[in-house]
Amino acid sequence: MTKPRKPTIRDVAKVAGVSTATVSKFMNAQQSFSEPVEAKIREAIEQLGYQQNYMARAVVTGKTGAIGLGVLDICNPHYTNVVKGANRVALEQNYSLLVVDLDENQKQIQQRLQTLTMRVDGLLVSGRLSDEVIDWLAELRIPVVFIGHPFRTGVISVGMDVRLTIDILANYLIGQQFKRIAYVGYAGANWNAVRIAELQAIFSEHDVEFIEYSVEAPTVESAERIASKVLLSNNRADAIIACNDQVAIGLMGQARQFGVRIPQDIAIAGIDNNPISKHVNPSLTTIDTRGQELGEMAIHKVLDLIDGKDVIQREDLDPELVIRESTKVISS
C-alpha cells in the first residue's frame, strides 16, 4: 500500500489560485499581500494539510527560521520569564525559539551553545558567563545578544545597571533603620564584586555594619546549605540582601525550621521579582528585573541584526523596588 503523496508548495499555489513565488514569499514572511490573497493561501494550507520543509527553506534562504536562547538554569523563574517574553516576539515574527538549559555548568556551556548555534540564525544568552566563553561568542558568524551586561566592550546586550539595582535596595533598607545588613552573594557571577563594592561604599557612608556571605550556586538548595551560618550566627544581621529571589526563598524556608521569624527577627530581600515571590509567606521584598521585557528587548535586537539593521550596543531597563512583608518593620 503506497503512502499518500505529501502536498507541495505547488499544490498550495494551485488551490489558492496564485503563483508558487507568492506562496513562498508569504510562507517565509518575505512580503505582505492583500488580505484576500493571504486568506486564500491560509485556507489552501489548512485544506491540504501542508507543512513547510524547514530544512529545504534553510538551503534556499540561508536561514533556519529559529533563534536560540541559552539560559543558565531553567528551574529559575527569572529565566522562565525571559523565555516567555522572547518566545512571544518570536512567534509574532514567525520564528521558532530553541531553548537550551546550560544548567549552571560553566565547564559544558560552550559545548552546549556550540551545538545550538549550528541550528539558529541568532542567539540570546545570559551575560553571566566566563570571559573565555564571551570572547568565543563575540566572534561567532551569527548575531549574539547578551541578556545581562558582560564586562566586555564590543558586544550587544540588554540588562540593568548593576550599581543602580543594588543602590535602590540598600538605600531602602537603610531607610527602614536597619544597622547590620548582610549580603549573600554568588562569587561565580561577574556582577558580584561590583555589588559588594557598592554596598561597602553605601553602608560606610551611613554607619551600617556590612556582613558578607557567599553561596556555591544561586539556587534554593545552596541557600539552604548556608542558612545556619547566616541565620544562627552570634553576629547575625538584622537584614539580608540575597543575590536573587531563589537564594532569599531558600533562606526563608530554613528560617522557619530554625524558629527565626521574618521580619520580626531578621528581614530578607531578594532580586528578580520571580512570580513565586509574592506567594511565599511572608511575601518577599525584591527588585523587579523585568525578565519578560528583557527577553522581548533582546530578541527584537537579534532580529534587527539578522535583517542587517543597526542597533544600540547597550540598553538598560530601570529596576523597580517591590516592597512586601519580608522587610516590614514591626514594633516590639
Write up this protein.
With 332 residues, the protein is an alpha/beta fold. The protein has 3 domains: 9-52, no CATH class; 66-160 and 291-318, Rossmann fold (3-Layer(aba) Sandwich); 162-288, Rossmann fold. It is built from 12 helices and 12 strands. It has helices at residues 9-16, 20-27, 35-48, 54-61, 77-92, 109-117, 131-138, 162-175, 192-205, 220-231, 245-258, 291-306, and strands at 66-71, 96-101, 122-126, 144-147, 156-159, 180-185, 209-214, 239-242, 267-269, 286-288, 314-316, 320-322. The strands form 3 sheets. The protein has a 6-stranded parallel β-sheet, sandwiched between helices. Helix 5 (77-92) crosses helix 12 (291-306) and helix 8 packs parallel to helix 9 (192-205). The mean pLDDT is 90.
Described by the principal axes of the CA atoms, the overall outline is: elongated
As a whole number of angstroms, the C-alpha radius of gyration is 25 Å
Briefly note the structural class of the backbone. Answer: alpha/beta
**Biggest β-sheet: count, sense, barrel?**
6 strands, parallel
CATH second-level architecture of the largest domain: 3-Layer(aba) Sandwich
Mean pLDDT: 90
Helix content: 40-55%
CATH homologous superfamily annotation of the largest domain: Response regulator
Distance between the termini: 84 Å
